[in-house]
Amino acid sequence: MRRALPVLAAAIGAFLLVGAFVLRFYAYPKLAVAPVDPESTTRLVGHDATILDTATLSEITTDLDTVVRTVGDLAATEKQAGDNVRVWVTTSSTRSGDGVVRKRQVERVAFDATTGEAVTCCGEYLETEKDEATPVRHEGLVFKFPFETQEKAYSWWDGTLREAVPVQYAATEKVDGLTVYRFESNIPRTQVTRREVPASLVGVDKKGNVNAEEMYANHRTFWVEPHTGVIIDRLEKQTSTIAYKGKDELTLTKVATKYTDDTVRHNVDDFGSLGRMLWLAYGPGPFTMGAAGLLLLALGTLFRERGPARARVAADPARVPA
Q1: Total Cβ atoms within 10 A of residue 303
Q2: Is the pLDDT of residue 305 over 70?
Q3: Strands 154-158 and 132-135
Q4: H or E element that contains 287
Q5: Which terminus of the chain is less hemmed in, N or C, by CB atoms within 10 Å?
Q6: Phi, psi of 181 (to 5 degrees)
Q7: What value does the mean pLDDT take over residues 156-183?
C-alpha cells in the first residue's frame, strides 16, 4: 500500500495539472463569448422629460418609457459572420406618459464575441423610419464591454453622432452588492446636422422656413460587471435642441434615462453568478489546481525515489547507521 501511495499522488497531481490547463485555455474561452441567440428585454425610464410634441409643435413635460428588445440573427451569424462574430438586432420603442410612441428604431450590429468591438459585415443598418433602413458602419463597443474588462478607456458607439466616442474608467463601486466598474462618457454640445424649420419656431419674425442647427449633448454612465463585460446599470443625460445662429431656441429632447430597478436586479442576479464562475475559471481555479497538481506530482516522484533505498537499508543490517 505504501508503494502505491506515491504513484497515486503523482497520478492525481498530473490529473490536476491537465485539468488546470483545460480549464484556463479550453473551458474559459468557450464560456467567455457572447451568445449567438440572445433574447432579452431591457427597460429604461426618464421622469419629467422635456420633448417637442410634433402634433402641437410645442414643448411638453412628460415621462418617457423605453423598451429595448435584443435578439440574435442566427442566419447571419452562421452564414455570413466568422467563427467569433455575433450579429444582433435591437428594436427600441419610446413612449411618453400619454402612451404615444415618440421614437422607434431598429438596429443591426455585428461584433466580436469576446472583445465586444463592432465588426464590419453582415448588412449593418439603422432604421429610424419604418421600412427605411440606412446602412451604417459601426465602430467601438456597441452592446457590452469585453470579457475581463480593464480599468482603462474604451470607445463606445453613439448612434446620434454615428461614430465612436471615448468612455473612461471612473471608479470601482457596488450595485446591489455586486462589484462593478463605473465608466463615464461626455459628449459636449455638438452640431449633428442642419434642417429647415418654420421661422416662427426659432423666434424669427418672417414667413417661411429658416436653416437651423440641430445640437446634441449626452453624458453616459455605465456600471459594468468586469468579468462578463455586461452593463448592469446605465444612465444617460441627453439634450437635443434646435439652434439658430448658435443659440438654442427649441428643445427637442431633454431627459435623464436610467435602467429600471427590475432590470438592474435581473442583471445582478443573472450576470453576477456568471461573472463569479468566469472569475474562477480565469484565475483562482486553474492556479489552485495547478499548484496542487505540482505539489502532489513532486511529492509522488520524491517518495517513489526514496522508497527502494529505505527498503535496501532495512534488508542489509550492515548498512544500518550506528
Answers
A1: 17
A2: no
A3: unpaired
A4: helix 284-315
A5: C
A6: -100, 130
A7: 97
